[in-house]
Amino acid sequence: MKNKIAQYLRHKSVSVLLSIRSKPKDLSRAIKLSLSLLLLLVCSGANAAGGIGSVWSTGSDDSAISVTWTVPSGNYNHVGSSYKVCYRKTPTLNVCGGVESYTAPNNFTATGLNSDTEYKFKVWCYCEKKNWRGKWKNAKWRKIGTYKQSTLPEPEPDVLISNISVVDVAPGASKYEASIDVEVTYTNPAAFEFVRTCYKKLGNMTSMNSICSKRDLPPSSWGSSDHGRGWLDVEPAPSGSIFSFGSLKQCRQYKVVSYGFYDGVDNGLKLGETNAHTPGDCKANKMGMVIVDDYSETILVEYAEMISYHYDGHLFHYLAAQYDQELFTAHKLMMEEDRVDIVQPKALMEYLVGSESQVWDNWQNENRLLEQRLTLDAYVEDKYPELYKDILDDIQEPEQRRKAR
Questions:
Q1: Cα-only R_g, the chain
Q2: What is the mean pLDDT of the chain?
Q3: Residue 88 and residue 74: Cα distance in Å, rounded?
Q4: DSSP helix/strand/coil, 303
Q5: 244: closest CA among 131, 304, 176, 166?
Q6: Tens digit of pLDDT for each residue in 38-73?
Q7: Where does 162-277 sit in CATH, by number?
Q8: Do 55-150 and 162-277 have matching folds?
Q9: Mean pLDDT throughout 382-401?
């Protein structure tokens, strides 16, 4: 189809240009029309680099995971009758090389999954995109977003079964008005005095599990909640209670954990944890954000291996010593709470980019890296020039629209 469109546009351009000979007075109109057609031809092959929305889980058990996602709006228009959902066990290089399904509503349940196993989901819509001139163009399959969720372990008899799941996310009216709603469920035996649910933004240096699991610690240690971290106690909190958190920052990854407290017991019982990504104007404005979001298992792996060689395998210690000693604290917290070892180069880069750390910008702008073309931008440009052009076009397009207005 794309080739047929391209042939038609070339033919139309040539026809218009030839018409100049017979109608000189239409010279100006013909040139303008030809340039418009050629511009459309050039831009028709551009690919969006980042997701255009958010995906989250609405529930899971030991063999199934349910997900939903935001309906395309704004600069994207859903012209298809269904969505495409791909999922596969992690780690995986190609999510859509696994199970691929199509669904009309914006929700999907994957069944027959392995228990206690993490799966990665990708959701696509057949959407057209509004260009900087306000015209709809280039209808194709576009990624709404990705999401990772684990199935629960197989239940054991006569034990507490609990879960926490995201039921809604909203961008709010401004940068710091995003919100997350989670539902906490559990089965008998459970007669909690109250249930506490805490959250923190990726990169926040708070030891959330150790503080939230102690009856008196959040009020005395944090004082109040903000966009970086916070908590909410609900008493009583029957199974199915909804915890709502507002005044969060748009386009950020948050970790949410819940504890149940029995009367007279200081330490809470962990009911579950989950991750949520707040929506908003999440257009990636840096190459690093696009690569981490869409190419973490391919290009980022390659770059991590290459750049690690230039630091004799000690990139983490170099960056901590050169720019921020708190990386050691972050490493400890990430190991304790998420079992993620950011000493490893790939995990370190995902953390630095995802947490908006200044370490990433400072490091990538070192003269040595710039002169030897060892930056991530240079790596993508040299090894994947066509992809680099597509990503760069997608990053720069919002600025073009602002100038046009």
A1: 25
A2: 81
A3: 30
A4: helix
A5: 166
A6: 433 333 333 333 578 889 999 999 999 999 999 888
A7: 2.60.40.10
A8: yes
A9: 75
